[in-house]
Amino acid sequence: LAFMAGSSVLALSPPPHLLTIRRSPSSLSIQKADGADSADRRAFLSRTLSTLPYLLPVSANAASVPVQRAVGSAESKCREEGNCLEKLELDGAVGWNWGGTDRCDASDPLCGPDGRLREEALSGKPVPAKDADLEITDVIELTLTVGTGSNASTQTMRMGLYGTKCPALAKEMLDLCGRTGLITSKDLLLGAPVKLGDERGSLTYIRPEERLEFGVFSQKVAYAKSIRRAKAPDEFVPQPRPSGERLELVRRDSSSRAHDVAGLLSVPKDGIGYGGGFLGTKDDEAYASAFQVTATSVPEMDKEGRKVIGQILDSKSMDLLARLAGSPTRKMLPGQNGGTPLIKVTVDECTLYSVTDLVGNE
User: Fold this and answer.
1) Strand 264-267 versus strand 291-294 pairing type
2) What are the pLDDT digits (tens) for 223-270?
């Protein structure tokens, strides 16, 4: 019995007389062998499921995460009757967070991470207070489309950058959100800047009620969309991660503050382009985790070496943060604390304002 865990495969083999397991890309079928004893079969599945928590990667604070329950009618029924293993309702047995038939619509603002409807919409936490030395130098306004089709809505998230405290990191963020985009190599035969706006960027990952992650999931896909093609030309070359002097300048910037409240803008310790967590991540996907926004106090992000470079500026944006952080995600494994959002969130526009210009206009 094989389970995918990131790029690894965990294999658990039952006695050959018990089960015949057939695996396809989209399904797992388990068939009873002739003469197999049902008690032995249940014992094997029980051992398998009890072993999973020790084999699957979980976060350091997993002990603090509430038990997650399945929400489908079949899972609920087998839990009440105590026979999930006999009925092979594996998601009910191990507590999948999502996947039942009786779940709420992910596009509904009241739909929570557990698939249940809330009684009322979430309210955002207070706008982060800041010390006097944390000067806001630039404002980034993200225009987001939340959902698709008739259920889509346009929302705005406004963030300010601590440009005086961390100038190199702020410049990277301004490049990513600006009209010219982020360019790390001009020697590409056919390349394009990495841009968050123009529908190229999106909400790529949610750790429910903890943090949001934005970025450009695939440079090739973004470029193909920009030229209105189904696929990027074969000669297209993605922008590599920042290196050389640019990387050294970013590394010299320190975090402006701890990740101790909701609404803080955070980037990887080596800057934008280094948030994937895997050295083998291809250049095409290097900017999928460009930056994150805290939805609560997350000391773990300080331990990860991440750097705070800005914050959300108004209560309306904090309300949007709370809604998105409380949205359901795709979870492939039990114990997984986050996943890609079930609702599509696209960055339509990324508008920049200099605080100096704003004050001058007033």
Assistant:
1) antiparallel
2) 999 999 999 999 999 999 999 999 999 999 999 999 999 999 999 999
Closest Cα to residue 49, out of 84, 93, 3?
Answer: 93
pLDDT at 133 over 60: yes
Say how far apart CA 315 and CA 124 lie, in whole Å: 7
Per-residue three-class SS string for the chain:
CEEEECCEEEECCCCCCCEEEEEECCEEEEEECCCCCHHHHHHHHHHHHHHHHHHCCCCCCHHHCCCCCCCCHHHHHHHHHCCCCCCCCHHHHHCCCCCCCCCCCCCCCCECCCCCECCCCCCCCCCCCCCCCCCCCEEEEEEEEECCHHHCEEEEEEEEECCCCCHHHHHHHHHHHCCCCECCCCCCCCCCCECCCCCCEEEEEEECCCEEEEECCCHHHHHHHHCCCCCCCCCCCCCCCCCHHHHHHHHHCCCCCCCCCCCEEEECCCCCCCCCCCCCCCHHHCCCCCEEEECCCCHHHHHCCCEEEEEECCHHHHHHHHHHHCCCECCCCCCCCCECECCCEEEEEEEEEEHHHHHHHC
Q: Which residue has the tokens 């609560």?
A: 296
pLDDT of residue 42: 53
Q: What was the pLDDT predicted at 206?
A: 95
The whole-number pLDDT of residue 7 equals: 43
Measure the CA–CA gap between 144 and 138, rounded to whole angstroms: 19
